[in-house]
Amino acid sequence: MPGSSVQPAIAKTNNPNANYHAKTNKPAVCHGNQKTPKNVILMIGDGMGISQLGAYRYYKDDETKSGLDKLSFDQHLAGSQITISDDPVLNITDSGAAGAALATGVKTYNGAISVDKNKTPQQTVLEAYKQAGKSTGLVATSELTHATPASFAAHNESRKNENAIAEDMVRKIKVGKSYQPVVDVMYGGGVDFFQQKDKNGHVKLDLINKLKKDGFSYVTNTKQLLNDNKSSQSIGLFAPSAMAKDIDRDPAKEPSLTQMTDKAIEKLSKNKNGFFLMVEGSQPDWAGHANDLTGMMSEISAFDKAYQSALKYAQSDCNTLVIALADHATGGLSVGTGDKYEVHPKVVNNMKMTHEGLTQKLIADGADIESLINNNIQFKDLTAAERQAVVTAAQAKDEKKTLAAINKIVDVRANVAWGSRVHTGEEVHVYAYGPGREKFVGVQDNTQNAQNIFSFLKK
Ligand SMILES: [Zn+2]
């Protein structure tokens, strides 16, 4: 990578985002220590591998101009990270082991939540930043207790123990002489884990109430999130478990990844000592598992927008390092397949829902299958056989076959193929902007991510 293509680590003082300062009353001049970031925003696109980003580049491209356009990430490319876990059997990582590496700097087995191979809890960067007097936040579109966000604030021998993980995520840790909640701001899905019910549906453990007693605000829809100016500590849970994918989302009920990121930054940046924020675009991974190209483009697009928003903050603040990376790639997406020198990811614009989201609707009791197909699969050249394959599978309530029939319609037209239903082992791109970015340059192990972030706390 030629040095000339790399954006300087520090924004120029005449930056175009000076209007941010009007809102925050900060001086419109960049300031602060240029080597050690006060704030760190770590953005993880789960499953967002290099080929997934390659397909997204075609998807986003303005085809009236020759060549492919730049992505927002491009000018901040720092290097790559190797994602392999330290599992006794498997040599491709899951999000648990990858989360532990990114959050603690320790390699572990697949399924672990920030414990090492001996199941001993390892300190996370979020915990270290909290103990250094900074504020901490987690944003995700999965349930917050899912492997990646959990890895930053919980310790468990198994990612499956989501109830115990929720309890861990609201615990207090020692900060100076007092005990404080480990995470100050949490936005994502997962009411069911933070308000645990017994078999009869009665709440038996209310962790939300616990946080409210500690002064947290609690928000459950987009309007409440955007209007919440009450407390600098907040929990926002917008779905019983995972949130919907971006294009399947009801924007009144569930905020976008960008809206959650912006609100988290707004709250966390009130701490003059700084903050650590982890933002996960959780579901490129799930789209990859489902081999759902529409879902993949939807989720990378949502992540891209959130990245640009975080970047805007960093460019005006000059004390903030923004890192964007994937924890691993998912789905083995081939950007072009067969004998054709062609790939057309833009065809997903004919889909009005993700393949996974549409499948759930098609196999639901009482589904109006014909209308669902008409409204959501809008290829003019859809053949009778393609349509019938979806109808037959949906009528049989066969989830796998319904999804496969929809995938096929899109993949044939996009000319893509999928080599895996799970994760793949290649390295991932790492992007970084702001003070400290030079530590991420080159080919690194994913444990280096945490070690770099820890190092900024050393005086
Ligand atoms: Zn996965």
What is the total domain count?
2
CATH class of the largest domain: Alpha Beta
Kindly state the percentage of residues in helix: 25-40%
> Which structural class best describes the helix and strand composition?
alpha/beta
Number of helices: 17
Averaged pLDDT, please? Answer: 93
What overall form do the CA principal axes indicate? globular
Percentage of residues in DSSP E strands: 15-25%
In CATH, what is the homologous superfamily of the largest domain? Alkaline Phosphatase, subunit A
Distance between the termini: 31 Å
**Structure ligands:** zinc ion
The total of beta strands comes to 18
Fold-level CATH name of the largest domain: Alkaline Phosphatase, subunit A
Cofactor: Mg(2+); Zn(2+)
Family: Belongs to the alkaline phosphatase family.
GO molecular function: alkaline phosphatase activity; metal ion binding
Keywords: Magnesium, Metal-binding, Phosphoprotein, Zinc
